[in-house]
From TrEMBL:
The UniProt record lists the keyword Transferase: yes
Organism from which the protein derives: Lyophyllum semitale
Keyword Transferase: yes
Record key words, sorted: DNA replication, DNA-binding, DNA-directed DNA polymerase, Mitochondrion, Nucleotidyltransferase, Plasmid, Transferase
Compartment(s) where it occurs, according to its Swiss-Prot or TrEMBL record: Mitochondrion
GO terms, molecular function: DNA binding; DNA-directed DNA polymerase activity; nucleotide binding
Segments forming domain DNA-directed DNA polymerase family B mitochondria/virus: 311-747
Superkingdom, natural source: Eukaryota
Name under which the protein is recorded: DNA polymerase
Length: 891
């Protein structure tokens, strides 16, 4: 273990690096390296200093990963053990992602500050993030019946409450409590009673008791304010509380449609493994401005000139669209944008830049990713919206460092073009039969065509959306936000859709899991691959969703209600022999967290519909607590409207494309996590202001005097927190009912099941024709494989014909062959595949491309693997859990 220590500097982010020889990291490495840091840094600074510190790692291929949030540590000796324990906890949470990563160094990123800069804490504890605090779940005790400090009787028999006096023909009563000045004033009815607890004529509390069993007054329901208590033999068996939540409201339609937007595109080249831009085009609908690298000192100056062109008064409030800004163009631009403005506010969700607000003087530009609004390639969108398409271009030609960017000469040979036929190449060459091919001219022409095509696509999309729904797309940065606005403006009726945040969200989100993806049998012949037509829209249209009052309960609600609808915490016991378990659960293994469909017993949270269906297959449950809802059909009109547009228009037309995109983009919007990270680009010497107020989860130094801070701000007064319009019970219901719908295909007696994905199945026989069709929820035959091999979720291949294969390997850009995957059926066989991996460096404003080796092998990710006596992979079977821990994991 080698230390790379730097001299101590104040109010500046530094890296303390402890180098290793590409090891698999364990807890002792963290302890030893952090102790070294403490001795080398903390013991060398004054007691009136504090350190902001973050735990990172660097892997064997040079990639950096943040392990912990930024922590504040005061210079007290006993804090070392506390910090070690905290970083150990973060490492255990990250093991799912990094358990087999070889680590070349641990980096402690730190900044030394005066203690006066951080005065918000009254003690020396770390700021614990919500992520960590959620780990400690305290079991609620069975409540004794005490309400607002008053002990109330646990029976309806008022004669046992104290000295009882009836009057008014036994329609009323007064009970005088023993050793108390208080009394119960009671109005008696046939099957219920209204009670007021009074002291000297002042009502302290009132409640209503209702009979459940007329022969036993200890079995009853008590209602106090928004709470209900169900008693049996003097004990509370169920408690319910109505939770007050706001409801989703309608949005107003737009009076007009804005055309204030610009399209922008960057062309890049890869020189010696580093990708940088060399051409930029900008189009405002009237004029195209182009920037070419040879006209500038370097690409940074070129990008700055391009942005300065946009910084004009006439473009105030404009949206600047780049197709794939989040994952590509933004990598090159953020550093440049931060240099040109001190007021930039990015909104980032799931590592995607949703919106970047760029302020200059008193004006504003909004940089957007058009791919998040129209998630398809520019080539496909151009075809769908009937606009001029992309031309062809020799991408590989510009990657040759020996080629001048001002090259003029013969047209590059066919090998430099990607994904085109020889015929199309020859047609392209005809354009240069009597002239030289000019790289600068052809690059600019190609880049210009991209911004024109994108502008025309967005313009047509905007026009169609406005004519259909009277909404302005420029107000909505993503397709899901647009779909959500369409639902709220046109289809939201009187249904009370509860908006869920806070503890209720955290309780319910445990039930929010996706589709079941599993391998059941690894090899088959004559395999039918079916996909469902619009699974989620089918569920949304045909099944009621959770609406109305949210009611929390503690206890077994089925003891007092017949099949209540809601989301329940339960203890699960499965039947012993079930090859296709219905319920899935998330478990922790040595290799990280996994979502599996096991047998055995465990605790989890499920939609009540899944629980009732599972009981039909022999599952048993103990219901512990949960939430109930009313039900209503809230999406039927939305789905019908869009699906009718889809079926009435031909494929690859604007309206068909719009309907298809919107149909599948709504439900997930209800399940967004309200505990979002916020981001700010700020000067290095001002970042301490955020450390005073927030939990800092990450820091990215832009190496230009500024840094991107990522922080949590989930306070109740956070406007964004209150206006996200989240209703996770709807997202849970849609995904849960979709899994139930898919389960019917797993249990058909005459079929052998090989593989399932969220909305597809692979089986050995054709389905009943009644299940196949073009309607919502019907199956369609996509492929008939002569031979098929299924190795893992999202890893399979099939032979369709003598010259056609279907190969799917998630995460690989270059897929292996069917024959390659077939070889992996032999135990302990692996396939080594070289792949180019992109490393995006926002600090340097470039992308590095490195060739890495991808080792593909069969692993027991979701089910136990079964091998024959010759070590051939022939079958799978469910894992078995005991108290939530896996018992039969392959080692």
């Amino acid at each position: 273990m080698k230390t790379n220590n730097k001299q101590i500097l104040y109010n500046k982010w530094l890296n303390y690096s402890v180098e290793f020889n590409n090891i698999i990291l364990n807890s002792s490495d963290i302890t030893n390296s952090l102790t070294q840091f403490w001795n080398d840094v903390m013991l060398q600074i004054d007691k009136n200093k504090v350190i902001l510190i973050q735990f990172k790692i660097k892997n064997s291929v040079g990639e950096y990963n943040s392990i912990s949030y930024v922590q504040r540590v005061e210079n007290d000796e006993y804090k070392l053990n506390e910090l070690i324990k905290y970083f150990h906890e973060f490492w255990s949470l990250k093991l799912e992602d990094y358990y087999m990563i070889k680590v070349s160094s641990i980096i402690y990123k730190y900044k030394i500050l005066n203690i006066d800069n951080l005065k918000d804490s009254k003690d020396s504890k770390f700021k614990i993030s919500k992520l960590n605090s959620h780990k400690n779940i305290i079991q609620e005790k069975q409540p004794s019946f005490k309400f607002s400090g008053f002990n109330l009787p646990a029976t309806m028999d008022i004669t046992k409450w104290g000295a009882c006096h009836f009057y008014n023909n036994y329609k009323n009563a007064i009970v005088y409590k023993t050793k108390s000045k208080s009394e119960y004033v009671i109005s008696l009815f046939d099957n219920y009673q209204i009670v007021e607890l009074k002291i000297e004529n002042h009502t302290i509390i009132s409640f209503k008791d209702s009979m459940i069993d007329a022969n036993n007054l200890t079995i009853f329901k008590r209602e106090i304010k928004d709470q209900e208590y169900f008693f049996e033999n003097g004990s509370i068996i169920l408690k319910t509380i109505k939770r007050k939540t706001p409801y989703l409201t309608k949005v107003k339609r737009s009076a007009g449609r804005s055309i204030n937007f610009i399209t922008m595109d960057l062309e890049t080249r890869n020189i010696n493994g580093v990708m940088n831009p060399y051409c930029v085009s900008i189009y405002d609908g009237k004029e195209i401005i182009t920037f070419y690298l040879t006209d500038f000192k370097d690409y940074t100056e070129m990008l700055e000139s391009a942005i300065l062109t946009l910084m004009k008064r006439k473009y105030n409030g404009y949206r600047v669209y780049l197709h794939n800004f989040s994952n590509f163009d933004g990598i090159f631009l953020i550093r440049v944008l931060s240099k040109l403005s001190d007021n930039i506010k990015p909104i980032i969700r799931d590592n995607k830049i949703i919106d970047l607000k760029f302020n200059f003087a008193c004006y504003t530009l909004f940089f957007r990713d058009s791919y998040l609004l129209l998630p398809s390639s520019l080539e496909k969108l151009a075809k769908s919206f009937n606009v001029d398409n992309k031309s062809i271009f020799p991408y590989l030609f510009v990657n040759d460092s020996n080629i001048s960017l001002d090259y003029e000469g013969p047209i590059p040979s066919f090998k430099y073009f990607i994904n085109i036929s020889k015929e199309r190449y020859n047609e392209y060459c005809m354009n240069f039969s009597d002239k030289n091919w000019d790289l600068r001219e052809e690059t600019i022409k190609y880049c210009n065509q991209d911004v024109i095509s994108l502008y025309q696509i967005i313009s047509k999309f905007s026009k169609e959306i406005f004519e259909l729904f009277r909404l302005d797309i420029l107000k909505y940065p993503t397709l899901s936000s647009l779909s959500f606005a369409i639902f709220r403006s046109k289809f939201l009726k009187d249904s009370k859709i509860p908006l869920i945040t806070g503890k209720i969200f955290n309780d319910i989100k445990k039930a929010y899991t996706g589709g079941i993806v599993d391998v059941f049998k690894p090899y088959g012949e004559n395999i039918y691959h079916y996909d469902i037509n619009s699974l989620y829209p089918y569920i949304m249209k045909n099944f009621p969703m959770p609406i109305g009052t949210v009611k929390y309960f503690d206890g077994d609600i089925t003891a007092v209600e017949d099949k209540p609808f809601g989301i329940f915490d339960v203890e699960v016991n499965t039947p012993k022999n079930l090859n296709f378990p219905l319920l899935q659960t998330r478990i922790k293994t040595e290799s990280g967290f996994r979502t599996i469909s096991p047998l055995g017993n465990w605790k989890n949270t499920y939609l009540s519909s899944e629980i009732y269906k599972a009981m039909e297959y022999g599952y048993s449950f103990k219901i512990l607590r949960g939430y109930t809802f009313d039900q209503g059909f809230i999406f039927t009109e939305f789905v019908d409207f869009l699906y009718e547009i889809k079926v009435k228009n031909e494929k690859d037309t604007p309206n068909y494309t719009i309907a298809k995109l919107l149909l599948n983009s709504l439900y997930g919007r209800f399940g967004m996590n309200p505990e979002v990270e916020n981001h700010v680009i700020i000067e290095n010497n001002k970042s301490y202001e955020y450390f005073n107020k927030f939990v800092i989860t990450d820091v990215l130094d832009l190496q230009n005097g500024k840094e991107i801070l990522t922080y949590l701000d989930n306070k109740p007064d956070n406007d964004e927190y209150l206006t996200m319009n989240i209703s996770i019970p709807i997202a849970v219901t849609v995904t849960s009912l979709a899994r139930l719908y898919m389960y019917q295909f797993k249990t058909m007696n005459n079929l052998t099941l090989f593989y399932t994905d969220t909305d597809s199945i692979d089986i050995d026989k054709p389905l009943n024709p009644n299940l196949v069709g073009k309607e919502l929820g019907k199956m369609k035959l996509e492929f008939l494989f002569k031979k098929a091999v299924f190795l893992a979720p999202k890893v399979y291949a099939g032979i369709i014909s003598d010259d056609q294969e279907k190969v799917v390997v998630k995460g690989l850009k270059t897929s292996p062959s069917f024959k390659d995957l077939l070889s992996l059926l032999k135990k302990n066989t692996k396939l080594t595949i070289p792949q180019d991996k992109w490393y995006k460096n926002i600090s340097k404003g470039n992308i590095q491309i490195k060739e890495e080796v991808y080792n593909l092998r069969v692993t027991a990710n979701k089910r136990e693997l079964v091998y024959d006596e010759k070590n051939n992979f022939i079958d799978t079977k469910p894992f078995i859990l005991q108290d939530g821990k896996i018992m039969n994991m392959n080692k």
